[in-house]
Amino acid sequence: MWIVLDTNIYFGHWFADSPNFSMLLNLCNNGRHTFLLPEITAREINNKYFQSRDKALNSYESALKDFAKLKIDVPSASEQVKAVNYEIIDILRALTGQLVLVSYDAVSHGHLIEKALKPKLPFRDGEKGYRDSLFWISILNHIKQHNYQGEIVFLNQNSKDFFIERGRDKIFHPDLQEDIDRMEISARFVIYDSIKSFIDAQGGQEAHQFDWTDFYDQHNGTLDSSVGEEAIDYLDSQPLDAIKSLLSAAGYDQRMLDAAFEASFEDWEGVEDSEITNMRNIQPDSGEVFIDYKFDFRMLDVKLLMTHTHYYADKFYIENNAETDVSDDIVEVRLLVRADLAASIIFDPHNDHVSKVEINQVEFRKLR
After folding, report:
1. FRET partner for 152 with CA separation of 20 to 30 A, picked from 11, 102, 275, 310?
2. Residue 183 in contact with residue 139, Cβ under 8 Å?
3. What letter would DSSP give residue 209?
């Protein structure tokens, strides 16, 4: 089996050490499955990492200036931050011996121009999609070059440019299938939209070697505490537009949401209604287990900040949806929601220790 991930799956998982990534790489190592990394993907990941670093560094240096205005002397670590190196190829090589780099040197420029002018996906109107096309054709060239005829797992979240859904199945867009047919590639592609969906599809012959109820009774305190803390950090780190989408789906008025320029979260009652939905060993004799975990916050306090201008423009709708606190310079709008979440956990039951948590799913329900 060959496995290839689209670039967007790496974003936010810069060190490939989330629970789902760990399971994927263990599966590659244990099953001797080839892990393909297109060189264009590696370059794009590295570039996005440094963009994220520079954005964080700018915020940090701005905060240093604010401290200086308050006459608080905080030593700068900017030079140390700038000196930090990052290379996704080195990171993945340290995690799996199954890594194979896929060059784009052999991709025909004429082929790309042909796809751009028609345009055919992954190119879109306006000749956008060059990197996606280079990624795609370099993979097909690699398959053709090695005459590979086995199964290729294609993990991709970009349904608009790569695949379409027919019921529960995912198939390549006709433009991409045309490339496969044109190059006479007989390998069988299986498409998943996330690492998690691929892991789940592998089954779990070891899933029931544990009594989940007894296991939960022994360890739910540690598990609840860890997922609760990670969930708040996760929500606080999400783009504002993503939070607004969750609140809009829960039924909150869009005019109020449009007025907000910042969101923060606080849970009042901790994690409730938690449940183990799946378990399996990560590796033989490792001592750690991979856990799928569902839980909720029965009362999650969502705080939205907005200006006086926006507040008074839609005051009627805002006050019908939320509690407000109007201060001299800002308006704080508070919503109470119920949040349903799902997470993946890497856990050492012998030491009752959670080493990693990854939030996979969030849904809000309107309380008031």
Report:
1. 11
2. no
3. G
pTM: 0.68
Where does the pLDDT of residue 275 fall: very low under 50, low under 70, confident under 90, or very high at 90 and above? very high
DSSP string, 40-75: HHHHHHHHHHHHHHHHHHHHHHHHHHHHHHTT----
For residue 35, the Cα-to-chain-centroid distance in whole angstroms is 19
Give the CB-side neighbour count of residue 226, counting CA atoms within 13 A. 23
| Spatial distance between the Cα atoms of 62 and 244, rounded to a whole number of angstroms | 26
Residue 19: count other Cβ atoms within 10 Å of its Cβ. 26
Q: What is the pLDDT of residues 203-258, one digit of tens each?
A: 654 555 566 788 899 999 999 999 999 999 999 999 999 999 999 999 888 888 88
Instruction: Give the tens place of pLDDT for each residue, 94-117.
Output: 988 889 999 888 775 655 555 544
* SS3 call for 25: helix
Pairing relationship of beta strands 289-306 and 323-326 according to DSSP bridges: unpaired
Q: How many CB atoms lie within 10 A of CB 324?
A: 15
> What is the C-alpha separation between 358 and 360, in angstroms, rounded?
6
How far is residue 253 from each of residues 316, 318, 366, measured CA to CA in Å? 11, 8, 11
